[in-house]
């Protein structure tokens, strides 16, 4: 089939480590998905949605080289297929298994590609993937801000994380394409902007505004700006590593997923410090910056806002983001989808998962009791009102999605290289 406009939500599956690797911040656990997974998939359909950003927990599924525990993934993906929900499969969301360590590990890219290949063989009906979610944010929070995983704070650690994350993403795409030649990759990435607070901060803001593109530049094989090329080489990237990205990209299989929150715009001061700026340019302006750079179809892959004391703050934000989406489309950008992230409330994102406090954040379409929030009602109505009005304008621009029920390939419940279903495999 050729899909019209894609309305989606997601089930939050972040799992970075904090406190020197001793604590795992597993959002699927914190939000009750391991208990309520069937109900969660039912809620997706109750909203009138047929597409879900979703993935199994990497650290619980990938137990070692060629060792996988597919038990939970088998249950979840069988249910998604039964309900004819298209998953955009999120294979790595901010965390790695303990045995791999963190994003400084040079073995991570090839090991992750092995996992992606095993997943694609096991679930051949899955067509759409985000192999690694928000590579830029993952590298910044893990290796520049010192919040997660390796908890380092240096440009060298950041460049190392970026090159490993993007290489892993590219190798995973190549591995999946071998199994599913019509695979589509929606690279969910945070769209950022840095505003200079004073004339003395202009140079620093320009540097940050160049660095924000690094993950996507490398992923799409775009030659980086000269300042960034020097920055990469000064901080540990070799010339041959850089040329790998220029020659191995799969841009023609990609849709640029972009994420926008109120926290995506920053003030930069003369001393190099940054702080939240709130919404200044907004989604439409910043999306045009990214589209003009890469010239790829776009999907708005994440946004949310807390339901505040008045109860309508998230509804207002949804309406504002949707107006921005329509503006971008009307300006001629091939924007093919929109996502409220996530299905349910999240936990501890008020500290960016830096602290294991158990604070519930009212960001979801449903609360953690699976009761619909006002923004859930508003999104359901928005989808109902707009889905028939917004087919992609040209047959040439429609997304060639094969629905789970339409997949005609050979289906087996087993990875052909694994001896048993569900159980831990070696």
UniProtKB/TrEMBL annotation:
InterPro entries listed in its UniProt record: GH, Glyco_hydro_1, Glycosyl_Hydrolase_39
Domain of life assignment: Bacteria
Pfam families linked: Glyco_hydro_1
Protein name in the entry: Family 1 glycosylhydrolase
Native organism: Massilia jejuensis
Higher taxonomy: Bacteria, Pseudomonadati, Pseudomonadota, Betaproteobacteria, Burkholderiales
């Amino acid at each position: 089939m050729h899909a019209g406009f894609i309305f989606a939500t997601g089930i939050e599956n972040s799992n970075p480590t904090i406190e020197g690797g001793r604590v795992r911040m597993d959002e699927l656990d914190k939000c009750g998905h391991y208990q309520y997974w069937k109900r969660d998939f039912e809620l997706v359909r109750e909203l009138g949605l047929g597409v879900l950003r979703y993935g199994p927990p990497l650290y619980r599924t990938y137990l070692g080289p060629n060792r996988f525990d597919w038990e939970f993934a088998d249950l979840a993906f069988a249910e998604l297929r039964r309900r004819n929900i298209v998953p955009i499969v999120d294979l790595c969301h901010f965390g790695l298994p303990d045995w791999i360590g963190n994003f400084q590990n040079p073995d991570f890219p090839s090991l992750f590609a092995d996992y992606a290949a095993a997943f694609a063989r096991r679930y051949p009906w899955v067509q759409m993937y985000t192999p690694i979610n928000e590579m830029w944010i993952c590298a910044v929070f893990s290796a520049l801000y010192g919040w997660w995983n390796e908890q380092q704070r240096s440009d060298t650690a950041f460049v190392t994380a970026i090159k490993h994350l993007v290489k892993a993403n590219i190798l995973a795409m190549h591995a999946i394409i071998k199994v599913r030649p019509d695979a589509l990759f929606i690279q969910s990435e945070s769209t950022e902007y840095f505003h200079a607070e004073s004339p003395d901060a202009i140079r620093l803001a320009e540097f940050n505004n160049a660095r924000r593109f690094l993950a996507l530049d490398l992923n799409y094989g775009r030659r980086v700006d000269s300042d960034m090329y020097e920055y990469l080489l000064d901080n540990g990237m070799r010339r041959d590593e850089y040329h790998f990205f220029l020659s191995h990209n799969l841009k023609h299989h990609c849709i640029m997923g972009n994420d926008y929150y109120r926290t995506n715009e920053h003030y930069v001061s003369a001393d190099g410090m940054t702080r939240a700026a709130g919404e200044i340019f907004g989604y439409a302006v910043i999306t045009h910056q990214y589209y003009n750079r890469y010239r790829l179809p776009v999907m708005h892959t994440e946004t949310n806002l807390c339901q505040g004391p008045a109860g309508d703050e998230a509804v207002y934000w949804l309406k504002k983001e949707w107006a921005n989406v329509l503006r971008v489309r009307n300006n001629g950008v091939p924007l093919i989808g929109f996502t409220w992230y996530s299905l349910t409330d999240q936990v501890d994102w008020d500290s960016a998962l830096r602290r294991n406090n158990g604070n519930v954040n009212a960001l979801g379409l449903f609360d953690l009791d699976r009761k619909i929030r006002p923004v859930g009602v508003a999104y359901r109505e928005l989808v109902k009102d707009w889905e028939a009005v917004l087919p992609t304008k040209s047959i040439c621009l429609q997304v060639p999605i094969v629905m789970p029920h339409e997949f005609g390939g050979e289906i087996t419940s087993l990875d052909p290289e694994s001896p048993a279903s569900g159980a831990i495999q070696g």
